[in-house]
Amino acid sequence: MNIKAIILAGGKATRLLPLTEKTPKSLVPVLNTPFLDHVLLALKSYGIEDVTIACGHLSTSLQEHYAENNLDLNISFTYEESPLGTGGAVVNAWDKQTQTILVLNGDIFSDINIADLLAFHQKSQSQITFSLVTLEDPSHYGVLEIDINGRVLSFTEKPKLEEAKSNLINAGIYIMETSVLQMVTADKFTSFEQDIFPILLANGAPIFGFKSNAYWIDIGKPQDYKQLNFDLLNGKVCTFAPRPRGIYNTEKQNIISDTAIIASTSQIKNSIIWKDVKVGNRAIVDDSVLCKHVQISADCYIKSSLLGQEVYVKEGHQVIEEKIDAGNVFS
C-alpha cells in the first residue's frame, strides 16, 4: 500500500497517570507488548512500511525502543519543542512529497480494515476520509453527521450530549490528501478539528466518513487501558502482535510479565503486572496495575489501585483505591 502513516504520540497522557509518569502512553504494555507495537504491526499487515511518529513527552524512550526493535519498518520521528496541535504535528511530520497520508492518534486501538478505508477514500475522491464508530455518548469526541453516501454534513468537536447531531465519532484514524496539509502553516499551532475541518466544510470540500463496526477503544483512561488488555486476553478482538512469554490466566484474569517474580503463596487476580515486579509471600493483588520494578512485600493487600514505577509497599500494608506516583514508599 503506497501510503505514508503518521502517528500522533506527543501527549503527556495525564489521565493515565501514574502509569505514564515514566513510560510514554504509546509504550504501556498491552498483553505484555508495547501498545504501539500492536498498531505498527497492524499497519505492516496492510503493507504500510513508512511510518513517522510525532512525539513529545518522553520521546527519548520511544526512539530508544524502536532503535532496538524497528519491526522491519521504516520508522522515523519528529519532535515538537512546543505543542503544535493536531494539524501542526502532522505537517511537521509530513515529508512534503507523499500525496496521501494515513493519520492515527497514538492512543487508539482498532482492528478497522485500512484497505477498505483507503478504497472508500479513493472511490469518493475525498480530501479527508474519517473512520467512524458509534458511541452511546459521543460528547468526548468529534461528532460527524453524514448523508447516505457518507459525505460529511457537519463536524462538531466535543458537543454536549443533548446537542450532538449523531452518535458517530471521529475514530482518530483518517486519510487526507496534500491539499489539506497545504492549509496548515508550518511551525504554527493548528488544530485540524478547530481550524481546518470547519473551513473545508464551509467551502463544500469533498469530506467523507467511513462507518465501521470494528473494535475500537481509546486507552486514555485507566479503566479503558485495562479493558483493552482483558478484551485481548479473552479473545474479544484479534491482537496483531504475537504474545510474548508471560502468564496469561483467563480464569483469574491475569496478565503478568515473564520477568515478574510472584511468590507461590500470593494471590493475583484481575490484574496487570509489568516487568520486574516482585510480589511477596501471602500478598493479595486484586483489580490493580503494577508498573515496572514495583515491590510488594509479604502480607500486603493491594485492591483497585495503580502503582507507578519503582513503588515499594512495606510488609503488611493495605493499598485500596490508590494511585501511587513512581518511586514512592507506601508505609
Q: How is this fold's topology laid out?
A:
Elements lengths: L3 E6 L19 E2 L2 E2 H11 L4 E6 L3 H10 L5 E6 L5 H9 L6 E6 L2 E3 L3 H11 L3 E7 L7 E5 L5 E6 L10 E10 H4 L10 H11 L4 E5 L4 E3 L3 H12 L12 E4 L4 E4 L3 E2 L4 E3 L1 E3 L4 E2 L4 E3 L2 E2 L4 E2 L4 E3 L2 E2 L4 E2 L4 E3 L2 E2 L4 E2 L1
Describe this structure in words.
21% of the residues lie in helices and 32% in strands. The protein has 331 residues and is α/β, with parallel strands linked by helices. The strands form 7 sheets. The protein has a 7-stranded mixed sheet, sandwiched between helices. The protein is elongated and about 65 Å long. The model has no long low-confidence stretch (mean pLDDT 89).
β-sheet strand percentage: 25-35%
What structural class should be given to the helix and strand makeup? alpha/beta
Q: Which geometry do the CA atoms define?
A: elongated
**What's the β-strand tally?**
28
Q: What proportion of the residues is helical, as a percent range?
A: 10-25%
* Sheet with most strands: 7 strands, mixed
Largest sheet: spatial strand order: 5-4-1-6-11-8-12
Radius of gyration: 21 Å
Describe the structure in brief.
Helices cover 21% and strands 32% of the residues.
Keywords:
331 residues, seven-stranded mixed beta sheet, alpha/beta, 7 helices, six-stranded mixed beta sheet
